[in-house]
């Protein structure tokens, strides 16, 4: 397998061969010239790469669904739904995958964790990656300096006497849905599915393991703060003892882990009245944003920001507001990837909080700035035809890497000069392509064609009140 610029499809990812787009109408709500004026930053794809479809996926195109930037910003850990884990070299984009210290761009050298559900890079060692499994309920630590396909450490909670909840809880395998590691790599935390009416937030001390490399001894667990699947766990970037969690029960919780028990540790329980997909800590004071706040993206593509110090909701952005900031016509097509920090173009030093957004119709990827209680157009990705599955912003080099549903990995740099004519030409051409596509696209009776089914996940129960 080899990689090269603009060469086929990615070697890392899930299977989605011949990606089927939702039949949904969505287009720009303004003229190309006004779009150019509204979006000050223009991102162009400087390189893209991939490989042939993998035989393990039946010849279908693979797609990366999880990613995380390491601390030195020279590697991105990538996770695949078939369980493969690999590293993308951000400084050498034409060599997409680093499978091991000795062999580059060889998929068989990728580590594998069955039914991979989450991954995160070490906060102290750029070569270490943690992954979680929804199959066996384990967390694996991978050292990419070693020419081995085996994990360095494996953490599990099965059979632990530190698990509470129902009588059978300690004997059950708890599928893990999310994972994070604290600053300093001292504590691992993972959230589980709801099993036998119990869902857990699990904690391990990374330093506690036996001679065989098993870290089976839990520090402890919480099981009373959420009543459904725990879908997100996120440590504070500077304070190892603060943890935020989110769930399909609609609650966004924050904890102080230094407290002796779960009741005392729970600082705030925010009712999102939705289903939490991802969490982002915001610790820089920008404009009118609180000095310390939590932002979350819901499975209904809403974005909420909460004051983590006072416990108040600061702002809520719904789909119509997000679609308006994207300057698109159909709110039901607005898709939020997640929240990101990005450098301001004005000075290249200060940061802004924003949203990477796409249209579910495809052909539209834009960065929306969060300016206090307002959303503002900020960045437009030129000639982006696919929906972004996951992405990473690289601050030091001020560029993006996107992992798209078509299997292509793309590197994006910001244009320094005004490229209004190019933006207008690209958007006008895309509109004509969309019209031609609609005329030739076969009809479908799939339920996913109904705009009301475009929510990425329905809530399964009523939400708890604050």
TrEMBL record:
From what superkingdom does this record's organism come?
Answer: Eukaryota
**Source organism:** Folsomia candida
Give the compositionally biased regions (Low complexity): 43-57, 441-453
Is Cell division among the key words of this record?
no
Q: Which keywords does this Swiss-Prot/TrEMBL entry list? A: Repeat, WD repeat
Mapped WD repeat ranges: 223-257
Q: Supply the name of the protein.
A: WD repeat-containing protein 89
Kindly list any coiled-coil regions of this protein.
none
Taxonomy of the source species: Eukaryota, Metazoa, Ecdysozoa, Arthropoda, Hexapoda
Name the SUPFAM superfamilies for this protein.
WD40 repeat-like (SSF50978)
Which Pfam family, an example, fits this chain?
WD40
Asked whether the keyword Cell inner membrane is assigned, the reply is no
Provide the residue span(s) of the region labelled Disordered.
Answer: 25-57, 432-466
